[in-house]
């Protein structure tokens, strides 16, 4: 299993800024082997970035997706729109979708099911709020989100990656300690192994939440951390490149 180092640009970078970034970044990583690299730009930049990533070692990702192929769903993006652009990954259930836009487990599950149906690889995001952590509910929350998110795909879980992103660490500059991350990642590994009856060996468990070029080398040493979903630090090609290099040290 190759680790996955993924960039989630969120609502940042225009098309022109995305092109400038990729022109720099693809040269930086052209000799990188041993890890898989993914970038999820804004929807408006997907087409331009897709063309630039042809014949590179960088995969293209999307930040969200609706669960219906086509129809009267103003503002939504369908799976066939993504596959047309050679999108390989789609981030689903991100905490900002859950907590700002009110997405529930049932909706996220529909998206995961549809993504797999259309050959897209979901990165299912899970994680607890600070209040839930302080109340000792972290594992309960993570288990609920995973069981609901992959419902109907238990035996096909090898087609899905999971990102543990504690909500309290996203965009705050406060990352989980190595011990905190490992504790939850180990719990997730045991959980999906049990749910899938051992079919989870190709499912990577990524860590997200204020990952940067300074803490990546320590976080990646945790035995059950198998990659990163990087937000703010991925907006700088040099910083994201350093995070990728850190992952190669394991």
Strand content: 15-25%
Radius of gyration: 17 Å
CATH architecture descriptor name: Alpha-Beta Barrel
Using the coordinates shown, work out and report the CATH topology. Answer: TIM Barrel
- Name the overall outline: globular
CATH superfamily: Aldolase class I
Tally of DSSP β-strands: 8
Strand order of the largest sheet: 1-2-3-4-5-6-7-8
Tally of domains: 1
Compressed to H and E, one letter per element, the order equals: EHEHEHEHHEHHEHEHEH
Give the class from helix and strand content and strand pairing: alpha/beta
Largest beta-sheet details:
8 strands, parallel, barrel
Mean pLDDT level: 96
What is the C-level CATH assignment?
A: Alpha Beta
Helix percentage? 25-40%
**Low-confidence runs of at least 5 consecutive residues:** none
Can you give a write-up of this model?
Pathway: Carbohydrate degradation; glycolysis; D-glyceraldehyde 3-phosphate from glycerone phosphate: step 1/1; Carbohydrate biosynthesis; gluconeogenesis. The protein is an alpha/beta fold. It has one domain: Aldolase class I (TIM Barrel). The protein has helices at 15-28, 46-52, 79-84, 95-99, 105-117, 130-134, 138-149, 178-195, 216-219, 237-247; strands at residues 3-8, 35-40, 58-62, 89-92, 121-126, 161-164, 205-208, 227-230. An eight-stranded parallel beta barrel has the order 1-2-3-4-5-6-7-8, surrounded by five helices. Strand 6, helix 8 (178-195) and strand 7 form a beta-alpha-beta unit. Helix 7 (138-149) crosses helix 8 (178-195). The longest helix is centred in the C-terminal third of the chain and has 18 residues, at 178-195. The protein starts with a strand and ends with a helix. The model has no long low-confidence stretch (mean pLDDT 96).
